[in-house]
Amino acid sequence: MKLKKILSFSVILILIMVLAVDAADPKKDLIIHLPFEGDGTDVKDVSPNKFKGKVAGKAKSVAGVVGKALEFNEGAAKFDPLKFDVPKAAMTIEFWFKPSKKFSSGSRMDLLYRKNGGGRPHITFNRGGNLLGHYFATDSAELGIISTYKEFESKWYYYVATQTKKEAVLYIDGKVDGKAAAGGDVRIDFPEFGMSVAENSGGGTFFKGAVDELKIWSVAFTADEVKKAMEDALAPTTAVDYKSKLTTKWANIKSSW
Question: Which tens digit of pLDDT belongs to each residue from 63-85?
């Protein structure tokens, strides 16, 4: 019996390590988090950095994937230079987007850009003959991933782009949509030039549609973490943290003694 308890306790320790390892920590890894829960007149960052943004032009609060979202119609969310230390080793950008109408071509629409001028990262539709491009940079080069999508319907899509010193990976709805070699430190221009959601710097390249739960992390999600983040957003009331999972496992083990 004593040996059985020792073995069971060892199993618990292993579970703790497995469930806790590699998980992104919002307290230290989250650079910015825009839940878009306001009334459409301002944008609040709920990450530890508490950045402040403003809505310029037309936007309104609508139902989102998690709570509310912000629907842009020739409007954008603008942020002055974001003061944070750029992570050199890795980053992840994630958000949900829903076009106002189905499209397979058309005028350029910038979903994420720097506030003043160009820069990286840059997420844009209908640019250079590509329906969707994720343009990123290292300390020595500007690179890109071109999506395989041929059209986007008026529905919610989950967008994730990760970057390490080795490669960048684009996911849409939890599936890999493209990869590109990186070969250098991560580069983010938002600390120097600010950030714009749903438009370039006054260029009229508006994204027309809704955006929800935009987050930038200083770590690169794994494929499993991308899928879990999507599942948790779609079913937040059923999401269970590792402590509750641990409690269940522990109860099951004790009941077998």
Answer: 999 999 999 999 999 999 999 99
Residue 129's domain is classified under what CATH number?
A: 2.60.120.200
Nearest to 96 by CA among 240, 214, 254: 214
The residues near 234 (Cβ < 8 Å, ≥ 6 apart) are 65
The answer to whether residue 235 sits within a structural domain is no
197, pLDDT greater than 70 = yes
Neighbours of 162 (CB within 10 A): 24
Q: Do the domain assignments include residue 12?
A: no
Residue 40: C-alpha distances to residues 63, 70, 77, 197 (Å): 12, 6, 10, 13
DSSP strand E in 4-108: where? Answer: 30-34, 42-44, 52-63, 68-79, 90-99
Exposed, middle or buried by CB within 10 Å (0-12, 13-18, 19+), for 78? Answer: buried
